[in-house]
C-alpha cells in the first residue's frame, strides 16, 4: 500500500543518513575521550601479544583474543554489576568465530602450600561448594542467585605440573546451565587460578580451546615458581590443597561478558544495527497488520480505505496550506 511503502522508504532513508553520521561523529567523540575517558572504555590488548599477569606469570595471547590487566578487569566487573574479590590480576576474552568465552586470572598469596596431602574428597568438597553458594545467595538479588548442579570434572592434582584441576556446573536464575573450569598453579608464595567461564553445552569445545590458548601459553615467572621456594626465608602456609578448593562459584554472567565485547567494538558499530532492527520490526509489524490472514475481506478493505483517506487528507491539507500562502495579505502587497 502507498502509505506503508512511504513509511518504509522514510525509515530506510533515515537509516542511510544515520550510518554515515555515526562514523562522522565517532572520531571527535573518541578524540575527546582521550582527555576524559569514559568509565566504560578499557585498555584492551589484542593478540598476538605477550602480557604480564601482575608480574607473577606471563601469557602469550593468540589472534582473535583480547586481554585486560588487573585494574581494567576489576573496573569492568564493577561496571557489569559484579563485586571483585580483589584477587583478580587479569582477564582474557575470546572473540573468535569458533566460540565465545572468557577467563579470569587470580593470584592469592597464602604462603607456600605443601602438596603432601593429595587426598581430595569430591563429595565433601561438593557439599562445601553448595553451602558456600547458599550463603552467597542470601546477599544477592533473585536474578543473581545460582544453584550448584554438580561436578563436571572432579578435583584432581597433577604433581608434575603443580596444578589442581576441577570443574563445577551450576544454573543461573534463568535456568541457564553454566560451567566454571578451574586450574590452580601452585607458586612460591601462593597460587594462580585460571577460571574458564562458559555455558554448559559449549563446555567441551571451549575447554579444549582454553587448554590450548591459556594453559599451554601461561608460564610462571622465574623466581616465583613452586621450586623457587626457600624454607629459610619464605612464609609457609598452614592450609593444604583441600582448603583452597572450598567456597562458592566465582564468575557467572556470560551475558554480561557479551555486552562487554559489544562495547569493545564501539557504540558507533552497535547503533546502526539497532536502527536497522527497529526499522525492520516496524515495517514487518505494519505489513503483518494489513496482510494478516485472520482479517476478513471487509476488514482489509476498511484498512485500505482508511490509509487512502489519510493520504488524501494529507494532500488536501497541503493544498490549502499552499493556497493560504499565495492569498495572504503579505503576498498581495
Describe, in plain words, how this protein is organized in 3D.
The model is unreliable at 8-34, 252-256, 266-271 and 317-333 (pLDDT under 50). The longest helix is centred in the first third of the chain and has 32 residues, at 2-33. α1 packs antiparallel against α6 and α5 crosses α6 (267-291). This protein is α+β, with helices and mostly antiparallel strands. 42% of the residues lie in helices and 22% in strands. β7 (147-158) and β8 (163-171) form a beta hairpin. The strands form 2 sheets. An 8-stranded antiparallel beta sheet has the order 1-4-5-6-10-9-8-7, with helices on both faces. A 3-stranded antiparallel beta sheet has the order 2-3-11, with no helix packed on it. It is globular, with a radius of gyration of 29 Å. It has helices at residues 2-33, 70-79, 122-137, 203-213, 254-265, 267-291, 297-326, 329-332, and strands at 45-46, 49-53, 57-61, 65-69, 88-94, 102-108, 147-158, 163-171, 177-186, 191-199, 218-220.
Give the structure's gist in a few sentences:
The protein is built from 8 helices and 11 strands. It is α+β, with helices and mostly antiparallel strands and 333 residues long. The chain is globular, with a radius of gyration of 29 Å.
Amino acid at each position: 500500500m502507498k502509505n506503508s511503502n512511504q513509511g518504509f522508504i522514510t525509515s530506510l532513508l533515515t537509516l542511510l543518513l544515520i550510518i554515515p553520521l555515526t562514523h562522522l561523529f565517532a572520531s571527535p567523540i573518541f578524540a575527546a575521550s582521550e582527555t576524559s575517558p569514559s568509565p566504560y572504555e578499557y585498555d584492551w590488548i589484542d593478540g598476538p601479544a605477550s602480557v604480564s599477569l601482575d608480574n607473577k606469570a606471563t601469557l602469550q595471547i593468540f589472534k582473535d583474543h583480547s586481554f585486560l590487566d588487573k585494574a581494567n578487569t576489576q573496573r569492568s566487573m564493577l561496571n557489569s554489576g559484579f563485586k571483585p574479590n580483589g584477587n583478580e590480576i587479569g582477564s582474557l576474552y575470546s572473540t573468535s568465530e569458533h566460540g565465545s568465552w572468557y577467563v579470569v586470572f587470580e593470584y592469592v598469596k597464602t604462603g607456600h602450600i605443601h602438596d603432601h596431602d593429595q587426598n581430595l574428597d569430591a563429595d565433601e568438597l561438593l557439599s562445601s561448594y553448595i553451602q558456600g553458594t547458599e550463603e552467597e545467595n542470601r546477599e544477592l538479588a533473585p536474578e543473581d542467585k545460582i544453584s550448584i548442579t554438580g561436578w563436571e570434572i572432579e578435583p584432581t592434582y597433577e604433581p608434575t605440573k603443580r596444578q589442581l584441576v576441577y570443574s563445577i556446573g551450576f544454573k543461573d536464575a534463568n535456568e541457564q546451565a553454566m560451567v566454571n573450569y578451574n586450574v590452580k598453579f601452585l607458586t612460591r608464595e601462593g597460587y594462580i587460578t585460571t577460571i574458564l567461564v562458559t555455558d554448559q553445552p559449549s563446555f567441551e569445545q571451549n575447554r579444549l580451546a582454553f587448554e590450548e590458548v591459556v594453559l599451554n601459553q601461561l608460564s610462571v615467572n622465574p623466581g616465583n615458581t613452586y621450586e623457587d621456594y626457600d624454607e629459610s626465608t619464605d612464609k609457609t602456609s598452614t592450609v593444604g590443597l583441600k582448603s583452597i578448593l572450598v567456597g562458592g562459584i566465582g564468575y557467572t554472567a556470560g551475558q554480561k561478558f557479551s555486552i562487554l565485547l559489544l562495547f569493545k567494538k564501539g557504540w558507533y558499530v552497535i547503533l546502526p544495527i539497532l536502527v536497522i532492527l527497529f526499522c525492520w520490526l516496524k515495517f514487518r509489524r505494519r505489513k503483518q497488520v494489513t496482510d494478516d490472514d485472520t482479517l476478513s475481506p471487509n476488514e482489509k478493505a476498511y484498512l485500505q480505505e482508511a490509509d487512502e483517506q489519510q493520504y488524501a487528507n494529507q494532500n488536501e491539507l497541503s493544498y490549502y496550506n499552499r493556497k493560504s500562502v499565495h492569498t495572504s495579505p503579505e503576498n498581495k502587497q
